[in-house]
## 1
Amino acid sequence: MYAMRKTATTWKSTLSKTTPVRNPDEIFVTPQQIPSACQGALHPAAVEGIALFDAGQYWEAHEALEAAWRAEPGPVRHLYQGILQVGVVYLQIERNNFIGMAKMFERCKKWLAPWPAVCRGVDVDQLRADVVAAVTAAGELGPGNLAGFDRRLFKKIQRIS
């Protein structure tokens, strides 16, 4: 037992010296970056990811949106991450994983918070409202009861041209 504890302590101290730990409240987009970040078209992989999201294929949407996030050098990549996280919230509800849903909801709130009502044609305000409605309904069901979740609450991402 002692050897295990010592190994874990050594590993933690080594990790903290070599790996930066991310602040979970850190915001990756500044208010100054947002106006220009919201101009232009979505990355093609983001368009694909949104189509998959709208088809209820949340894991596949995650993969496509992650590709867009990785390929996009600018701050809008963080919007893609927020959309991706909403899909993961829905996926966790489908899997009856209440704790996973709650964790992903906290993450997606962080990623979506800095964006204006509409960014690159995505109705971000509606997306935020939709995920809140789904999580609220799931919360009313409680852990272990998500099989009874009304999947009509999984809304498509609204686009504004």
Note: The two ends are 61 Å apart (CA to CA).
## 2
Amino acid sequence: MIFITFVQLIACHLCDIAIAKSLNVKSLFFVFIAMTVGLHLSGQDNFKLAKSNVEMAGTSTLHEWTAVVTKVSGNGQLVLANNALNSIKSLDIIMATNSINGSEGAMMDKKMLKALKEKEYPSMTFSLTKVNSITQKAGEYLLETLGNLTIAGATRSIPLNVSSRLNGNEITFNGTIKVKMTDYKVAPPVMFLGAVKTDENVTISFEATFVKECQH
């Protein structure tokens, strides 16, 4: 009788162990599935600049002027969740200074490149440092951000409000930056022995479309 009871206790103990192991395996399985689904729905992806339109505008003692930057590159790391923009981990844009093409002709372009110290600093850059808020409204995202803008080797932290639209694997950002050239130690260009002077205030408008890179 005692032997039978002992055997029954061992059998019950073994059964409990088996059930516990089964539950642990099942628990681990469901945890793995949840993590996999979570990673699929909310993952950090690498994006690369596919196309852009960067324009500069200002005034002078003669008339208004404009210029475009034709060589622009960039990349970023964005977090998408359920086909929506969740956060931006990084975003960098690089503009080749010597690709500035102005409305006032080659002479003004040459003056501008000299003022921007193009030989010493061939690139102007913007690097995102902080996203204060992301608000979705009517299919558009409104972002309040901070970033470092570098021109002619001088870097300043600037606030930047941006609108964006997400379309599948593409996201397009639009924004405007007000720049005072003297803040970046850039002397406004002059022409004709000082008869024509450009104002120090410049507006940079941009549209930048980033495309998600394929994961290998």
Note: The longest strand covers residues 42-59.
## 3
Amino acid sequence: MKFKNMILGALAFIFMVPTPAAKGAAKGIAFVKVIFLGNAGVGKTTLLNKIVGKPLSGDHHPTVGVNYVRLTEEDTALDIWDTAGQERYRSIALSFVRNSKIVVIVFSVDDTNSFGAIVTWLSLLRGYVDIENIKFILVANKTDLKERLVAEGEIQQKAESLGMPVYFCSAKTGEGVDELKGCMFNLAKEIPQKVTCSLETEELHENEDKKCC
């Protein structure tokens, strides 16, 4: 099933056609593309599953390629792409950054390498998009763990230096999940260049400016 979702997501990206989740989308909704980035094992997929209300599973399988979900609230829809963090898949993951308006960078509080990789992800992004036109969110994940290797003060300092809001989250306990979800929707509503359209029409494909973000 995950492989099938990856293929559907890749086709949706390459051809800019709606995924199955997009069918039946109502007119007048603003679509905003969101992408989750971060090292492998930081809990991006589990966190996203918690955000969309999926039950937690004891089985963990690393994301291969990308996964896609949609969240809708009133007149705003977040098209969220969950990417693989393994180095061998980074070029695939980063290729999906195109047309993104919000980037969520996730690290784990028990993994200093993932915390240090924040600047690496930002550097890699510059090769694909103009980061000045993207809104960023920093997520300190797995806060339920007793043994934290990254201090809260250090995290706050990093977020301030990068000019990003930071959320301390746990998919296990639910800490910070609703706040993170609310932040994504709030940032989406602030974006002036949202596309209001119906994914059921072919008008999206007439030119680049009309494609949903």
Note: The longest helix spans residues 2-15.
